[in-house]
Amino acid sequence: MPDTMVRGVHLNYEVIGASGPWIAITPGSRRPYQELVNLAKAMAATGYRVLLHDRRNCGASDVAFDGSASEHEVWADDLHALAEQLGALPIYVGGSSAGARLAILFAIRHPAATRGLLLWRVTGGQEAVDHLAENYYGQFIKIARAGGMKAICESEHFSESIAARPSNRERLMATDVEQFIQVMTYWRERFLESAKLPIVGASESDLNAIKAPACMIAGNDIIHTPATARKAASLIPNTELHDDVVEKRSDDNLLKEWDRKEWRDAEGRIAEIFAAFLRRTEAAR
After folding, report:
1. Structural domain spans, the chain
2. What is the per-residue pLDDT across 207-216, written as a single tens digit (0 to 9) for each?
3. Is the pTM of this model over 0.85?
4. Per-position DSSP letters for 122-170, written without gaps between them
């Protein structure tokens, strides 16, 4: 896959499709982009170029710990720089869970570069924030304090990063452990601040200010609640919400975690919904 230097970090990326407007989609958590290849191919078949990439600290891209902003803000700025380098701006930006957060922050931080938003499984609420803050940051703070950067290299996530890009071992071992803990602590604090916000990473005024049209698909689990999707859709001015793509559940009967098979099985429907939204949006332009 192509690899390029963006803001001092090597990013692994792939473009699917040869012509048409650009779309960038990103998966959730810190997972590599490969899980979205089939969806990207379905979207590219309708006349678009789809940009997939591994964010820093994900997949086969470099590990790098930038404490100048929240992790998701760093990711949003990286994607903007990558898309600019590829001549892909303005671009439709989308994603699932953490990828949706990246997309929304991209629209907030780079409005002129945002053609539209394609969002699914948006995240919000105290339970989601507490669980994910520990999963993304808290566990690594504890590992680093107990065993230093060698233990970080041996952790499940970062050992996978090393397997995907062997030079990441040297980068991790060269990282000062106290600096690593400091950045992870800062990212954790920024994440925890989102507990009272409509969605993780964005306030009501942030969402109200988004001018780009948005298409949103609701989740059905306690991390990606339908209530969060409804709230976000009501705050982003030009948003269409779809809440029946996966099994529709009441707010008091949500899954404990997202069902990956259910979402994989729904990819055809997701591609159809996004394609219809893109046709209408492009026609309006």
Report:
1. 3-125+198-284, 130-190
2. 999 999 999 9
3. yes
4. ---SHHHHHHHHIIIIIHHHHHHHHHHHHHHHHSHHHHHHHHH-THHHH
